[in-house]
Amino acid sequence: MSATEAVARVNLIAGLISLAAGGRIERGFPTPPEVLDYFRDKKLAPRFSWLDVWGEEHAHAFTVAGVLEERTLAEFRAGIDQALANGTGFDKFKADMEKRLKPIGWWGPRGVADPEGGKAKTVDFTRPKRLQTTFWSNVRAARAAGQWDRIQRTKRALPYILYVRTTAGDPRPEHLRWAGIILPVDHPFWRTHFPPNGWGCKCAVRQISAAQAARLLGRAPEDGGVIYRDTPPDERMRTFVNRRTGQRTQVPDGIDPGWHSNPGIGRSRTLGRILQEQLDETPAEFAAARVQKIVAGDGFRSHVIQARARGVRREAVEAALKASQRPADLVNTIEPWTFATQPVAVVAPGLARDLGVARHTVVINDHAIAHNMTHRLPTAMWRIVQIALDGDDIWRRRDDGATVALAIVDGKLWFAILRPSPGGGLQVSTLFRGRGGRDGSYARKQVERCDRIR
């Protein structure tokens, strides 16, 4: 066995041990790479309050409340990174941070002014609780995101997640209610209830096989023991108003505001953004070759399958809401789109200039894939977006500015509709079959309200 193979084997074993342990990092084994990737992908975000970085923003922003200097924030990030990489605990982290913060005047009470004009506050990292909160909130979120990555990769063999009873000495009654819940990996429950579910939460989940799920669900309840069930609880939602931003968020009872989103799902959005940035920095001809491999790969296939499944679930939720005469817009709370993106095509430099776009990578999200039942296509059909953009039948709609690209594939007429994406690129809005041929009435009707680009 070569040295490279040996390292790979050790990392695999470490990942499996971490998976079985509910994402905990075990002393003596390398930290799973997904954990470090999640943490290292974050950008420094100096902020006055924990409310200034909200929900899924934590997936791509590293912040420590009250630290407004990037140099100091970078020391915190380096300290937590070192603790994650070495699998060390809080005491060693605290000693390390004392060495890092003393020379720059941040070890002890320090007044910090609110840049928004609010009341100033005193920040003191010599207080154990203050530093513990910073350490554990970052470490547990990184571990959770890494565990979610591994769950997504192995869900064919281990398609269920079990909510494990918390190890906390003083468990929260709401969290105890969730112990024993067994649901499919992609069940919407895990979008909001994947631990940690609050400040100091020590809950965990374990990924299990279908056979294990069947055995646990068939077990008779023990007196005072965990009751295994495959139905999520009836959750009550409460409205939390972020006093810093005014943003109103629906948070399930029992979950602390700010911890109501799965860090792994937030990471998927972050990874999509990072991949798009990398491709945009690559010359278009090389980026196009890479995107073709992405669209043909398992990651893109999984993205499409999950999106289509989400579309089906949304329709079921909408039907149930209609039957119960409840507001239809609740579907976005119960079964929201993730809006995580994947690259699907590249715009050639000449067309990019004609369209006035600054980024050549075209992306697609789950909403575009599955919002319309008649437009839900097999994975391989999304290659048509690139075929349409490589053609010479490109239009811009006058009423909304959308780009309309036509293509004939296997004798069939296709329409790719694209809209501006953040940062000056394009994202797919939808792809659908047209009736008739290119010169038919349907095609003429579609383009008569457009101006020709080429």
UniProtKB/TrEMBL annotation:
Q: By its UniProt entry, which InterPro entries does this protein fall under?
A: Phage_head_morphogenesis_dom (IPR006528)
Domain Phage head morphogenesis: residue ranges: 77-205
Q: Which Pfam families match?
A: Phage_Mu_F (PF04233)
Annotated protein name in UniProt: Phage head morphogenesis domain-containing protein
What organism does this protein naturally occur in? Ancylobacter dichloromethanicus
- Which lineage? Bacteria, Pseudomonadati, Pseudomonadota, Alphaproteobacteria, Hyphomicrobiales
